[in-house]
Each structure stands twice: as structure tokens, then as C-alpha cells.
Amino acid sequence: MTYKPESTPLHRRRLLADSSVVIPPDLETATFLNRGNGAPRSNTSHERHRGYKNTCNPDPQNTRYPCISRPVEFIRHTYDVVVIGSGYGGGVAASRMARGRKSVCVLERGKERWPGEYPSTFKAAKDEFHTTGDFVPEGLHGAPIEQGNPTGLFHLIAGAGQYAFVGNGLGGGSLINANVFLRPDQATLNLNEWPAEIRSQGSLDNGYRRAEDMLEPETYPEDFPELHKLKILEEQANILGLGHRFRRVPQTTRFKHGPNNTGVQMQASGLTGQDSTGCNDGSKTTTLVTYLSDAWNWGAELFCECEVRYIQKHPEEGYLVYFAWHGCKRGKFKEQFYHNLMWVHAKQFVFLGAGTIGTSEIMLRSKQLGLRMSDRVGKNISGNGDLLSFGYNLDRNVNSLGRESPLPGFPVGPTITGMIDCRDKANAFDRFVIQEGASPGALAHLCQPMMQILPPSRSPPGLTISKRVRRFLSTLGSRVLGPYYAHGSVEKTQIYLVMGHDGNQASLTLKNDKPHLDFLGVGRSEYIEKVNSLLAKITNGMGGDLVDNLYYSALNKGEITVHPIGGMNMSSDGTASRGATTHLGEVLTGDGSSYYDGLIVVDGAAVPTSLGINPLATITALAERSVELVAGKRGIKIDYDTRNGLLDLWGNPQYPIMDDQPSAWEPKGMSNQKKGIEFTEVMKGFIHLGNDIDDFEVAAFKAESDCALARLFLSVRIPDTEKFISSSEHRGIATGTFSSGLPGSPFNILRGDFRLFRTDANVPDQSNMIYEFDMVGANGDTIHFHGQKNLGPSSALSPLETWKATSTLYVTLKAQDGSLIGKGILHIEASDLLDELRSLNPTGSNLLARCQSALMFLSYFLRQVLRAFLAPFIPLEYPGKKTPEDLPKVAADEIITVTADDGVQTKMRRWEPTANEGGEIFDVLMIPGASVDHNIFALPTIKTNAIEYFTAAGYRCWVLTPRFGITPVARVGFSAFDARLDVLAALSAIRNLQSSPSKIYVIAHCVGSLAFSLGLMDGKIPTSWIRGITISQVFLHPIPGLINYLKGGLPVAPTTLFSALAGDWLNFTSSTHDTLFQRSLNQLLRFYPVGSAAEICASAACHRLSLVYGRLWNHANLNVATHAQLHRWFNGVSMTTLAHLVSMSRAETLLSPTGVDLVTESNIERLRDIPIFLFSGKENVVWRAESTLKSYTVLRERFGEGEGRVERMQFEGRGHLDCWMSEGAVEVWEAVRRRVDGVCGVRREEGEGDVGMGLNDGGGDVREDYSSQKLSPEGEL
């Protein structure tokens, strides 16, 4: 803004008189804080733009704005004081309570904006409008309306008879008012509507003095440039014969540079006339730059976009304040928004400063919900006698259209600078004031059309032809050349703002939970007619037309007020029959003079009558008085004396009260200079409360039967999209509510951990959406919430399964001690999906950055979904140079070379027991299957493996690697029959190492089991050496799975075919550099049948294993580290070994290489007196579970039903090798150990043998526990 003062020397001397003033080198051309169109900083209240700067800066790209509010994610559950609203009353309460060293939380519905961020164009202003109430045109019944931005700067409440216009934002109405600071006359304060304590002479003097000290009102300086509209108002006062009643008004506008009394750097007024849409020149003394900045400096915590809905008594102390958070576009979920409220606990005080309409609405709703109050709540509301009219097309230039940059020599001035004071009447209700106004530039282009549409209520009589021509040309000029044409009718329009007294007969009620404002009769009162007559006189006297405002002309003589007061009126006698609050604003209970201790109204809602002037001074003074006196009741000493010094609004408060959360978190973690993303989702379902059901589906079914509905309303904020995508954790910050039948519902969720498509460490090729947080109930209970969505190959090529995977949340609730509270399932309903998509909100410094952020996030999301959906076609995984690190494991105590009778050498490893209380140590020999070695029992990639389990149980464990395993001789080509010699040699070696030879317990798996059983059947292995046997998957009757059965029945044996094409050895490890045949085989094996879609994976090694043996596991039981390193656990297989297995599986019995059936009655008899335990995984597709069942049946028939003689188990959810290579296989190991204990005569207390082994409860997969971890400012653990 540039202008040339008409009296430069005096004006310049005034600026120079203050040593703190920063004077531009050229006052005539200096640009004072002119920062463009004032576009909002972003879609979220906590984010910074480039703006507010403490010195003159003509480059808007290099500026930035302060941010004293905090993200809602950092709200605490409990404060000493909660302040609702941030206008004059709320600002006073926040500042004074913080100076009283109380923890203070301020909840503001609007956003935080600083000079430079206010709208200055019509489009920007339109985006900040919110309209609610009842639209009542002439002759029609009211129709409820709600349109626009609910957190916008401007809120228009449509009422019957009168509209109310109020402000939203951190600073409340002070952001858009006209800054006029006037005390009412004593006659008004002596009205009977006031309590006696206020009617007392000088009762508010202290409050006014404190308000003046903070807000620093002053009149428009005499040495500042002449303002046309002010000069014309003075002339109009003379027309009325009231020249002596004309005066300049005190206003909270700065006319010099430098810090205010709070310590905030301010700028001299640019005289822009933009006050009503927010001043971008840094001169407007709002509560933001005074009381609220002071409160922030003394430790108060301020939160924006928080619409308080109602208040309830806390069951122990204080109050619960329930609010709807508008962040992350939560309002898009219209059905859920007001039914899933967050809350904050005020231990001592709740101060209501949400404005007349806001406070009254909150208290009406609180009353409906059980907080007993006076019947006067919502009654006796006044419009403060406000009238708005226009003196259109005068015979001189008024210059009342605001501009961000007024023309040199033509400053607009502050919105209001003078008044005609008509408060000298004997009757207080006949008193009023007339003030001139200015229309903000954002509305300039609407002025001419509006003036032409609205019929003039009074035109000047006896116009000459020349005057008519002049008026016509002026009108034409404004139409053609625009509203700023100096000789146009719009620039010749005086705006009249009148305040007086009305009947205080308006009321606010709730209809369908919506506020309904009723001002019927306001526009038809005698008062209005009298004022209009005076306005017509001064308008017509200057050749203009008096034009009523739009609402009066079009809407049944309705008026508009910018100063609604009342609704929670102070009681004139201190009882609920005459008002809603005490003289201190304490809310009356409705029972005589009793009131709620600590529940206090400090805004215009407590004012019991119209004031006849601008009410900001009185509201502030009343709040100062109220807060001081209620603090005194509690013994709270408010520090009024300590001055702040110059505030660093980009730094930290000087006097923090609580410092366990980083106060500088916002600009570091949530700066909109970074490309971020946020969204909101609603999930509904059923959660069973209790610890008696483990299965999610069963728990949800039971909960649904019990009507135990649960709902999660969650917003996720990702501050940095690039970092989010590149990080392995893909973490966001979750905030919201959880509602269910749990005591304390709704539960607040703050700073929760959300992870999108994090690689599941427990299931190969699966990613999870993790929801992990502690949530706090209104009763103070803390419950840990773990939710998980699973997206993996089970969704392959199925849109329905993909939708289920991305919309189904498996929920576990636990107490703080880890005990289970409940389980269940929540879903995103299809009807809510559109709202979720609409809530997706990218953030960034400009449009391009926001588009890039949205594109990055959506492409990442789509890639992850398509990876699961197209699982059979994703790139194959081959052994890489980097493999997941193994967990620390105890190495074998000894590695022994074992030489069989035929000279073949293999290895055997020994582990000594890690826990033994001095008793006898028993030897256990473990025999793995083909193509593997000791690692299937000693797997380093799971938390606890089988070796660790059994050594912790006190057993000495030996693991033999037979010749068909990972040995140098495996490629030679040996059968299981040959390998029986290795088992014999291993048993012999163990016996030789024993101090005195004793029997050995044998645990054998798969082909190892077949080798062992072949040795037993042909008598090669002495049964006298065997203490007992555990058989895993197959023993005497190898019955193949379906796919293996079909392969074995082919006309040409697969082993023969492969030998002809690629040789006698099939390697399970492949690479992109393999032969063409091997690479082609890898691609074909993508489509090899493995069962359900959940078993699809991308591992080339896994595919090859499935080809040879059949699927070896349920993938859900194998963790990623194990699955990624299959090349370490498997080498390959000889066609000779395989051919022998095929022949036995065809015969479903044990065969020698020459085809002799070894399972005869005489050979089975060898097993008599040996305890045998057989088990199978129910979902084993290598050997059908019937393999062990048939062997079990034969042995039981042979040996009878002796206890412990022959036993068998079948494990649900287990396949083949996942009975050994999975952490969750503890249930299998425990069953085996119990049999080993029984055979060896080991006696244990209940549960002994598991303690200290690091096993998870119940045998489930081990999952990470995030409950004790905290989020850093950047949203990282």
C-alpha cells in the first residue's frame, strides 16, 4: 500500500517520535506489509505460509507467518482450564489464567491467520463464508440452510427478522470487527437488566483500564491524512444540527510502527479500509496479537478447527468439553461428524467465549444432554440495535471502498473513524450512535449491482435536471468503469453503521440440533423508523438516495447485526428465574442462585441488554472483572505486572507451564513447505468385549449377536509424502475417536501410529496397514488399540478380495497390563468410501507441490494394491546380495563327522542343554528331510527355534544332516534307503560319546523319517538303541498329496523328463543369469498350482520347491526373513533320490530300491515297546495327513491301546515344514516335548519348560509391540 499524506511533516514526525519505529527510506513509496491477495496458508490451521514479517518487505515470497496454535494431535487429555473461543472474552480468560500459572487449552472453531493471510478478493472471501440458520424471505416460512466453509472467517447466521454476522478464527470477532473501543454511558449500565454488582458506579473501571492497557485504543490522528468519509460524516452531523456531537472514536488500530504492549511487532495502519475482512497491513490490534499471544507466551496451548458442541460434568472433578475437530476434512463424513466427538477434561475452569450465538448454542445443547440450567438460556438476545444503510450516489466523493493499496493522496482509513453521538436522550432506549463505514475491497464489485437492485427507501426531493444527469453519469461510470471510478456512484456512497437499543426479545433455540435464531419484529420497530428518518435527512441533504441493506429490503424488513449479545444473560437478582448466569458469568444451575463452580461465560452472551455502542470494550472489561474475581475465589494469583518484552512468535514461549511436548514441533513436522497428505476414514463393525475368544471372525460374530457396535473415526496426517514413501515404515500420525460399549467411550486417539503397506515381517509377500495407539476414555481409562489390515496374494485377481483386504481391520484391545479386553473386526463401508476419497487433502507450498504430493501418494497406494492384485505376474524374487540379518543364535557346541558303513561321510551337530537343574541329561537325535540341513530345527530367522526350545527344556540335541541333505555328496544321488546308514552311524556315534551307552530319543521329519523307518523295518537300526520316536508328517505309509499323486501317475515320470532336459540335479536356487531352460522354468512355475491365492508368492526358490515336493508350508506361517532366504535352507535334489520317493508314494508303503515292501508284520513287530508319537499338519499337501493316520491305525491294531504306546496329533493351520520353521510352531514343539518328557520320565510343574524360552503366548506369531514407543516431531519412532 502506498499513499502520500496530505500533511507529511507532522505525520512523519509522529512516526519518528517512537524510537521503536522502523521507517522506510521513502515514506511516500514504502510498501507496508502488502502481501498479495491474502490466500490462506493451507487447508489446515496449523500449517505455515510465507507471510507475516516484522519489517517492511515488498517480496511476498520471502515472508513467513507465525503459528502460535498447535496441531490437535498435540492436545492433552486434561488441563486446569479450557477456554472455548478466542475473541475478547476468551482471549482475556486464556491470558489471565496462563499468567495465573494454570495449564490452559483454548479451543477455536476457525483457523489461525496473520496479516497477509486475510482474503482481499471476492473469490478468496467467498471461500471463507459459512451460512447457517433459517432463510426467511418475505411471506415465506423459514427454510434451514447450511452452506460454505464451517471454519471460514465469516459466519452469517440467518434468523427470522434479523441476520447475525460474526467471525471465526484465532482471534474471533476481533479479526473482522471495526476496532471501535467505546464505553457505554452510565445510564445504560444502570438499567435494571444488569445485576446490582454491575450497576454499582465504577464496577467496571478496573476492567476497562486493563482492556485499554492491552488493546491500546486511540483516535484517528489529527496529523494523519484527511479521510473523505470522516469529513463527510462531520458535515452530515452539522446537517442534523449535531456538529457538537461529532467525534472521532477510539479504536484499536495502530498508527505507528513498533511492538504493542504484549510484545508483538505491529505496523502503522495502511488506511486500507479492509478491517471487515481482516487487515493485511499488520495494524489491527486483535486478540490474536494481544491476549492470545500473551497467553501463548505464558504457556497456554491453542487449538484451531475445534468446534465445541457441549459440556458435561466430569464424574470426578471439573468438566468434559466435547468438540468436533474439522481438520483433515473430517466434515466430509456428514453422518459421522457430530456423532464422533473428541473431548478434553477441564479440572478447574471452563470459560465460554464462543460469542453470543456460539456460547448460547453450546449451552442449549449441554442442557438438552443433561446439564441442568436456567430456562433463560437462549432468551433475551439483542442485536445491539444494529442497523446498516447506505447513502448512495451523494454529490461528492466518499472514498469508502477498501483497497489493499489505496491511491496516493486518497487513503480510505480504518473502517470506522468517527461517529455522531446521539446518546444525550433522557430515555436510555432512545440513545444511539451513527458511524461511517467502509466496504472491504473483496465486496467492491458487488456494490453497484446491489445498489441498483435494492429500491431506495428515500430519495432527495426536487432534483433538477442537472442533478439528475449527474446522478445518471455517476451510475453509468460505476457500471462501465468499475466501482473504483472516482466520480462513480459507488465511490460516492456513504455507509452508515448505527447502534442503539432494541427490545432484547430475540431467542435462540435448537431445532433438529441446529440453532434457530428468532428476531421477529426488529425491522418494524419505531426505533428503526426514527433512525431511518435521520439517515434520509443527511443523505438527501447531500443529493443521495438512502438505500436499506439487502436483508431489510428483500427479507421481510430484516436487519443484520454484527454485535449480537445476550442468550446467557447475567441475572439481575442472581437467581435462575431472572437470568442464566451470575454477575461473574457463572452458569446458574436452574435452582435458585446455585451455580456451577468453574463454568463461566465471558463473552457477549452474558451481557443482559443492548449497549447502544460497539460492545468490544465492555465485553473485554466484563471478562477482565470476571476472571480476576473467580481466580481470587480459588486463590489463584494472576501476574499482571510482568511485561513480556519483544515476543519471538517463531520461537518458544518464555514462560511455559508444561514442557513435556516440543513446542516448536509444528514448523518442523508439519510445515506446508513440505509435500504432505492427509485423509480421514470411518470404520464400523463389532468388537467382542472379553478374553474368551481368540478368533477375530468368531469374536465379531458374537459381538454382532450382542449388538456390540464399534466405530473408529480416524484422521491420518502424513507431513512429508516423499519421506513417507521412501521409509520402510510408511508412517503417518493418527488422530480421532473410537466409540463402543466400553466404559469411558468415546475414546480420544492422539498421536497414534499409522503405517500404510508396511512389509509384513511375519508373512511373505504381504503388507499391512497398522493402526497402533493408546486411547484414553472420558473416564480416564487407557486402552491399547492394535488394528491390522492384511493385503497379500490372497487378493490376487479378485476385486472383491482386494476390497475386503483394504477395508477390513482386525482389532485387538488390551489393557495397560497387556491383558486382553476384546477382539473384533471393523470395516470401511462402501457408502463411506466416497467421503474418504473426498477427504484426501494434499498439502504443499503451492498448487504444483500439492498436485505432486497427491500423485506420489496415490501412485504409491495403487502400486501396492496392484502388487497384491497381480501377484502371479510381479517380478520374481531371486537370492540377493543383501539378505535379512539373522537373529543372534547359539552356535552348535560341536560338529562331528559321521561315517556310514558304505564310507559316506556326513555331519552331525550337538547342542548342550541351556537349562538343567542337575538331573539326568537325555539325548535327542533330530533327523531333517531331503535337501535341507540342521537349519530347519535351528533356524536363525525366528525368535526361538526348535533347538533353543528343547535345549531350554533340558535336552541335549543332536542334528544329523543325511546324505540327501545339504552335503557335498548329495549330488551323487542317494536314496532314502541309502541314508538309513547315516542314521545308524549317527546313533552309534552318540552312543560312543556317552559315558555309558543309553537309549536315544529320535525326532524325524519327512524323508529323514522315511530313512529312519526304512532302517527300523529292515533291522539295520537296532530298536534297542531307541528310547522313543516322534515322527513328523510320514512314517510307514507315504501317501502323497493330490498334486504329487497326479505327477507320480504321469506316463513319463517327471524325474525322467527332467534328467533328459537338464541333468540329474535340480537346483532350488536360480537367478536371472541361469540357462534359458531354467529361466523359462522359473516363469512357467508362476502358474504351478499351490492351492488358494493366499499361497501365491514371488520367490523362484519357493516355486521350485513346490514343483518337486509340493507346497512345503502355509505362507502365513513363514516370516519374511525365512522365506527370503530359502536358498540358504535348501540346496537341490537328485533325481535318484526323487525317483525312490516317487516309487514309494505310488505304492504308499516303504520300499527297498529293488521294490521290496518292507512294511511287514514281522518288521512292524520290531517297534513293539517303543513309544511312538506321530503328527501331521492338517493342511500338508506334500504327504497327506492320512499318511500318519494310516500308520497310527496299523500300529494301534498291532500293539493295542496301551497308554503312551502310540499317539497321533493333527495340527490345524499347519502344512509341512511350517511345523518346524515357524515361530508359531511352538504348539507343535510343546506337544512333542510333553511326549519326550513322558518317555524320559521328566516331571515338570504346570507351564514349566516354556518359561525363559522367549516364546509368545498361545503359540501365535510374534508381532512387534509399539505401545511404549513415542512419536518424534517428524512422526518417526
Automatic annotation (TrEMBL):
Domain (Glucose-methanol-choline oxidoreductase N-terminal) ranges: 167-190
Comp. bias regions, Gly residues: 1250-1259
UniProt xrefs under InterPro entries: AB_hydrolase_fold (IPR029058), Cholesterol_Oxidase (IPR052542), FAD/NAD-bd_sf (IPR036188), GMC_OxRdtase_N (IPR000172)
UniProt GO molecular function: flavin adenine dinucleotide binding; oxidoreductase activity, acting on CH-OH group of donors
Keywords on record: FAD, Flavoprotein, Oxidoreductase
Record PROSITE patterns: GMC_OXRED_1 (PS00623)
Location of the region described as Disordered in the Swiss-Prot/TrEMBL record: 32-57, 1247-1277
Listed cofactors: FAD
Pfam families noted in UniProt: GMC_oxred_N
Protein known as: FAD/NAD(P)-binding domain-containing protein
Classification of source organism: Eukaryota, Fungi, Dikarya, Ascomycota, Pezizomycotina
Family: Belongs to the GMC oxidoreductase family.
